[in-house]
Every structure is written in structure tokens, then in C-alpha cells.
Amino acid sequence: MNLLKINIAANFVGTLWQALIGLIFVPVYIKFVGVESWGLIGFFATLQVLLSLLDMGLSGTLNRELARLSAIPGKEKEMRDLTRTLEILYWSVAIFVGIVVVSLSPTISKYWIKAGNLPPGSVEQSLLLMGFLLALQMPAGFYSGGLMGLQKQLPLNIIVIGISTLRAVGAIFVLWLLSPTIQAFFRWQIIISSVNTLSLGWFLWYSLPRIEGNSFFQWPLLKGIWKFAAGMSGISIFTIILTQLDKILLSKMLSLEMFGYYMLANVVAMSPTRFFSPVFYSIYPRFTQLSSTGNQSELILLYHKICQFMAVLILPGTIVLALFPFEILLLWTQNSVMAENSYRLVRILVCGTAINGLLNPPYVLQLAFGWTRLSFYKNAIALILFVPCIIYLTRCYGSVGAACVWLALNLGYFLLEIPIMHRRLLPSEKWRWYLHDVSIPLFVSGLVAGAGRVLMPERMSQFMIILYLVVVLSLTLGASILATPMIRELLSDTIRKVSFRRNVVI
């Protein structure tokens, strides 16, 4: 198995394990602390993403530069000095973020959060703990970016699996045996985040090439990467605003209870990211190396293979989730009120997320060539157009209006970004992407899952609903594979190889 397959497999195992942890433990968290406290956890998640604006593109830059420099002999010292330089900048930003959040916690708790039945003191203490937690969590993303650039996804995901398991299981024991409060939850997160960041930082430095002497902060190294870092920073700023503005507005306009329902729907609707994130982080270094060496034919082959692979990963599950949201939420939460208040949001949000996932390989291709301008201007224009829409629709239709904007945003990217991108990068591959990589698996998956929705009996036990959904998902996935040329061929080759090995052994 080559390194790319190992990295993809490792990232999938790590990501799916985290998804399983969330699937199991999120309802338990809500049972211990209540839906209003879950709303605070959702607010922290939004705050975490929003403040990652201050990342300034450093994580993505470290990822790309370590991937690029690792393919060039004699760059060992530059790799270590660059890591040290960006590390110092990143920790400075993280500490600044923590100080700001801690300082503003009384103001946010008083003027922004609608506490409902939660004591105001609990909300303020939680926000105070969030500040410390943010300062400790931010550098973990930086170190992970460096390890991905070095293509160390296997050991990275071993750490991720261990930490995520300890984080979730430990939180349950803390809430069960010590204190079923939101403050206790955040205190445990601070402890485990410290362990996580220190572990990742140590392993990144251990994985870098050895040199004589120490690594130092080097201002000149920033001159060679500042344009790419600035482009990444601009993309991140616009992307985060576009993806988080709905949550920011709703955290102000809704009660914590209703905001908790929205965040619950968001957790479910963002589940497809568990599938396309591992592919993103695995192919980014490889795309970068192929673009740097000018290997166009292999790049085109890998590009379409990854795009079709992404379609098979995302579309069957997304379509089933969009067609059966109430049933899935009810099975997961065992709470009809939560399912009733969230399923319409899931249906809208998950469609936008799926489109966003299909656009990931084209986006990675742009970054691999160091071309950030398209995504920067795309997001800037979208910000101008969609922010008024978010504000207006949120005021008029609440959370459903905000969800519709997320779907419309990604539809716009799908229709406009791809043609513009393919004029410059792989210009002869646009229609192949639209037809073979996306449209055919989308149509076939929708046809099979839609038939499953129409034929579903009205009254079924929970066990029979689970069995029925598994059958529908399996048929949809199988049809999607058969309708996707390169994945169908890859599966056929794998089956032939396995059959040949069995015959040889016999």
C-alpha cells in the first residue's frame, strides 16, 4: 500500500472514530447538562471557529511548505527554522486570543447570551474557561498541519484517536462522578487539550529532519511565504464569516434552548465533513508535490479519481440523511421534541455541506498550485451578497432562513467557481468533472434513495427502521459505486487481485 492510501486510510479511521465518539456521547452530554448548556458548548464551537481567523493561514502554509521542502534535498534546516518561526507567531496569537476572551467574558455573558434557566454566574464562568481552552487548543491545529505536510497521518491519527477517546470518556466520568455542570465539562476540556497540544508539538519536532545546532526564529523566511499565507488568511477570514455568521446571529436572536436545537442539527448536517476532511488532508501534500514537479498526466488521473471517490463517499449518505432526517434524529437522540425541532434544519444544511465537500478536491488543486486569488475573490463577493441575505432571512424565518443561505452559498460556488477554475487549471477537464465525477453518481444515488423514501412503510419498530435505513444506504452506495467509472474500475481491480491471491494460496 502506497503512502497516499495509508494516509487516506489513517485519516478515515481517525475521523470516523471521532464521529462515532460524537454519535455516542453527544446525547449523553445533553442528558447530563441539559440542552441550554449544550447551547453554550455550541457557542464555544462557533467562537472557536470564528477566532481561528487569527490563524492567518499559518497552519495551511506550514502544511504546504513542509510538503514542498520535503521533496527538495538539502532543505532540512529551512524546514526546522520555518517551523520555529511560525510556531512562535502562532503561540503569540493563541495567548492573545485567550486573554481577549477571558477579559470579555462578563460582557458577553451579560449582553449577548440569553441564559434562560441557567444562572448568569454559570454562563460567565463557562466563558472564562472557554478563554483558557481556546489558548490551549489553537496550537494543536498548527502542529497537526505540520504533521500532515510531512505525511505523518498514521501516527497523527493514533494520537487523535487516543485523545478524543480520553476526552469523551473522561468528560462522562467527570459529569457523572464529580459534577454534572457545564463548568466541570470545560475544566476537563482544558486538561485534555493541554495533553493534546503538548503531544502533537513534541511529535512534530521529533518528525522533522535532524540538523546540527538549534532552530531559530528567522524573519527572512517569512518573505518567501507571506503571499501564500496572506491569501490563505484572506480565504479563511471570508470562509469563516460566511459559515459562522448564521450561528453568531442565532446565538443572539434565539434562546439558548432553540440555539441548542440549531447546533444539534448543525452537528448532524456537518457529519459529511467526517468523510471529506480525511481526503483533503491526505491529497493536499501529494497534489503539491505533483504540481511542483510538473507531472500533469498523473495529476489529472489522481484529480478525477479523488473527485469520484469523494462523490461516492458523500452523496449516498447525504441523500439518505436528507430524505430521512426525522427518523435518524429520533433514533439517535431518543427524543421526539429534539427530532421535531431539528429535522427540517438537517435536511437543508446537509445538502449545502455535501456540495461543499464535492468542491474540496478542486479547492485543494488551487492551493497545490499556490493559487489563492480565486477563492479569495469568490468568498469576498459572496460575503457582500450573502451577508444581507443571512441577516434578512434570519430575522424573517429564524433558523430555517439561515440554513437556506448556507445551501444557496454552496450552490453558487458549484455553478460559478468550477468553470472559472478550469480555465486556468486542467482546462480540458471541466465537463468531465461535472458529468462523470458529480452528476451521474448524484442522479443514481438520488433515484435509489428516493425510491426507498417512497416505499418506506408508515408504521415500523425502531429495529425495523434501522434495518430499513441500512438496506437503503447499502443499495444507494452500491448504485453510486457502479455509476462512477474510476471507482467501479478500482473496485473491480481490487476484487480481481484478491481472487488471484486466493487462487495462488490454494
Would you write up a description of this structure?
The chain is mainly alpha-helical. It has a domain at 1-249. Helices cover 86% and strands 0% of the residues. The protein is built from 19 helices and no strands. Helix 5 runs parallel beside helix 7, helix 8 (219-253) runs parallel beside helix 15 (373-397) and helix 10 runs parallel beside helix 14. The longest helix is centred in the first third of the chain and has 36 residues, at 76-111. The radius of gyration is 23 Å and the shape is globular.
Give the SSE map.
Layout: H1 3-33, H2 35-51, H3 58-70, H4 76-111, H5 120-149, H6 153-178, H7 182-207, H8 219-253, H9 256-269, H10 273-293, H11 296-323, H12 325-333, H13 336-358, H14 360-368, H15 373-397, H16 399-424, H17 430-455, H18 462-482, H19 485-505
Helix pairs in contact: 1-2, 1-6, 1-10, 2-8, 2-9, 3-4, 3-5, 3-8, 3-10, 4-5, 5-7, 6-7, 8-15, 8-16, 9-13, 10-11, 10-14, 11-13, 11-14, 11-17, 11-18, 12-13, 13-16, 15-16, 17-18
In short:
The chain has helices at 3-33, 35-51, 58-70, 76-111, 120-149, 153-178, 182-207, 219-253, 256-269, 273-293, 296-323, 325-333, 336-358, 360-368, 373-397, 399-424, 430-455, 462-482, 485-505. It has 506 residues and is mostly helical.
